[in-house]
Structure formats: structure tokens, C-alpha cells
Amino acid sequence: MSIAELDSEELKEAVKDTLGEERMPTWSELVRIMCRIAQENGEWGGYPIPLDSLPLVLEERHPMAQTLSGMSFDNIRLARKRGNNHPEERDDPPLVEYVNSWYSLSRRCHVTILRVMPMGGETVFVVQPDFGAERLVSMLNLFEACDVWNIDAEVAAQSKLLAMVGVHKFKQYMMTGSFLETSSRSRVTYVFRKLRPTVAMAPYDRNKDESMKVLACLCLHPIGYYETTWAGVMCPTDDVIAHLTMMRGDEHLFWRKANQHPAWIKEAGL
Amino acid sequence: MSDLIYAGSDSLIPDPVAPFEPGLDALSTGQGHLEITFSKADEKEVQRAKDIIQDMMKRGYLIFIDEGDGKLKRVKRFDPEHEKYIIDDPQPEHKPEEPESSTGKKRRGRKPYKKSVDMRRTRATSVPPTAGG
Is the pLDDT of residue A131 over 80? Predict the structure, then answer.
């Protein structure tokens, strides 16, 4: 029985079997229930868990991609209120059509061009200033993702990270949430950070002892992540381990697979 | 414990120089990364590890192995029957002789050399496919 085939009665049964009573599970109990269902289905990788308001983004080949991609519990409630099973099954015509968007470095804002259908397809632009409040919202959204992370998983991941980097870097990580490592091949210095993209830096001139420049901020979430956040579906240190492993094992592939954000945009997390 | 903390001692951090233990670490969701250590696992667990590795290769997971030297190498293929990882060998000890061509010209370009590594003598870490970010 897969999560896609569960209706509300079957889910209630799964909850009752795990908790011993019929009631709404807490987030940690929901994690346990999903782990149990994944185990019963032979899915050794586990199932990602949707949140209340942040839609889930999964990689295309994941077994649950079709079922869970774009899902949040708010979306489900909204769809049910409108009388449809899935938000995408609605037949309402779109009110606006996306044309283009970019980041303006000189004005420090996001510019989006839209075509408004009720206005006869007239083109309008929307300017979204990039200032502290937006970045604060991205940070606050991480608290919602905390609900579905397992603390035992985080502790296990930190043990593995300690074995990979040693005491000194691990202490840096525990105290500051980040640590540095320079690639022996490319001589690029990486700042691996918890819940933020990895910063790649190189000196302006390798022959001189000068300051560093940021090449890019590399964002990569294995399996999935929650929209508008830096939160992956794995616990935070597992994401760091993924970045570190790829950098050490195949640096070119790491750069190819990651989204390379410039340092000045909100997504870079600087 | 507080005395140790205020004294700035790092003795609370366990000794990371633990003996190298071959096995598999599969990063995943839910209960955290799946960990199988071959010296502590029975044959059923080892078979499970082989099944998981094959499943991971099909799904596009990246697998990196450590042979105990701390250097990570990317796995290209997995041979479950012989329990071998196939990796690129950057410095082959023996280069096979290249056959002579009919025109007498030498073959151009670097030929990739493959090396097979025993599964039970390495520690593998798998990274799932990325969803972006």
C-alpha cells in the first residue's frame, strides 16, 4: 500500500496502528508513520513529508515525485474547499501569463514581466525590492521545516561529518554553522554552511596574497527541498555531507549539478 | 561536564580517528542516512546493501568510495556478482598495449582505464539526485 493510494480512512488506520488511538498525530509522530509506510513499501530511502504552507519540490525520478511535488497541506485544503481533488485539476483560465524576469543589480530588485489576460493581454511589470525583510522571511520559513526533521538523524549526520572533517573543522561547524575547505585540485576555497548555499571563493590573483572573490554560491538539495527556503527534505547536516562528498569526489560534477547563484541575490544566503 | 566545557577542552568531542570500517552510508530522508557496516552485518544485510546499491545506480544516485586513504572516488558501475565497484583509474599501473592500426598511425586521445575495487574493503557514501535549490 503506497501513500498515493491511502485515503483518509486508511491513513487513520495507519495512525491508529502506530499511535494506538485515533487522533491527529504530532509532526514527529507523522514522521514515524511515514517512515513505517516507507519501510512496508520497501522504500529504503524514506518518504519526504509535506509541510503546511511550503510546497515540496522533488527530483523528477523520485518514486513519489508525481504524488508529492508541489504539495503542501494548505494546497490540499484549498483544493478541497474548491471541490477538486488536486489544485492542478481546476479548469479556471490563468489570470496572468509569465513573460520574463530578471534581477536588476543597479536597482537591487527583482523585475517580472506579466501579461494580464482580463486586460486584453496587456503587459505589465512588477518590481520586488530586495531588502532585509524578504531575507528574514526566508530564514523564518526554516522553522516550519524543522517540524519534519528528525533530531536523531541530525545527530547521526553530525557523527559522520566529524569522521569526514576532523575535530578542528567540526568544532567550527558546531560553533558557527560552517567550515572551510580548499580543494587540492582547483585551489578553490569552499565555505560549507548549514542551511545555506556553499560559497565558492578564489583569490583575485593566485600569485599574490590578496583578498578573495566569491565565484558563486552553490545550491543543491538531494531528493527535494521546500520552496522559498534553503531547507532540504534531508536533515541539514546531511545536505552539508552531500555537498562535501561531491566536492571531494567529483568537483566538476558538483558545479554542474548545483545552481550557481551570484553573491548579491537573496538565494545566495549572504 | 561544565568544568570541561569552560576549560575549553575538546574531550567532549569523540575521537574521530576511529578505525576504518568498510560499509555503506546512503543519504536519505526520514530516519536519517542508512548505515550498513560489513564487519558487523550478517550476509542478509550485505545482500540488502548490494540490492540497495543496484537500486541507487538505476535511480541516478552518485556513489563515492573511500578505500581507507581518505580520498573519494566516484563509482561508475557496480558488479553485484563479484561485489566490485568499477571506478576510473587515474594512474593505471599497467597500460594495455594498443593494437597497431592498418595505417600505422597511433590512436589519439586518452583511453579511460577502469579499476575494480572490492565492495567489502571500501566505505561508500551515496548522494541522491538533486532537486535543484
Answer: no
Between CA A72 and CA B93 the distance in angstroms is: 54
Helix (H, G, I), strand (E, B) or coil at A72: coil
Reading the block at residue B68, the C-alpha cell is 581507507
Which residues of chain B neighbour A238 with C-beta distances below 8 Å? 27, 32-33
Amino acid A209: pLDDT: 66
Sheet holding A122-129, edge to edge: A96-104, A109-116, A122-129
Q: Which residues contact A10 (CB under 8 A, 6 or more apart)?
A: A1
Q: What is the Cα–Cα distance from B50 to A134, expressed in whole angstroms?
A: 46
| Per-residue pLDDT tens digits for B117-132 | 999 999 999 999 998 8
- pLDDT tens digits for A55-65? 999 998 888 88
- What is the value of ipTM here, to two decimals? 0.80
Contacts of B130 (CB under 8 A, 6+ apart): A59, A220, A221, A222, A257, A258
- Is the distance from CB of B62 to CB of A181 less than 8 angstroms? no
State the pTM of this model. Answer: 0.82
Show the cell assigned to A194: 548549514
Residues 64-103 of B with CB under 8 A from A: 64, 71-74
Query: Using the beta-carbon criterion (under 8 Å), do A61 and B32 form an inter-chain contact?
Result: no
C-beta of residue B36 within 8 angstroms of C-beta of residue B23: yes
Q: 478541497: which residue's cell?
A: A80
Mean pLDDT (whole number) for A1-18: 56
3-state secondary structure of A82: helix
**Residue from A248, A251, A252 to probe the interface with B (highest B Cβ count within 10 Å):** A248
Taking the C-alpha atoms of residue B85 and residue A2, their distance in angstroms, rounded to an integer, is 32
Q: Return residues 69-128 of A near B (CB < 8 Å).
A: none
Using alpha carbons only, give the angle A40, A42, A48 rounded to the nearest 5 degrees.
Answer: 85
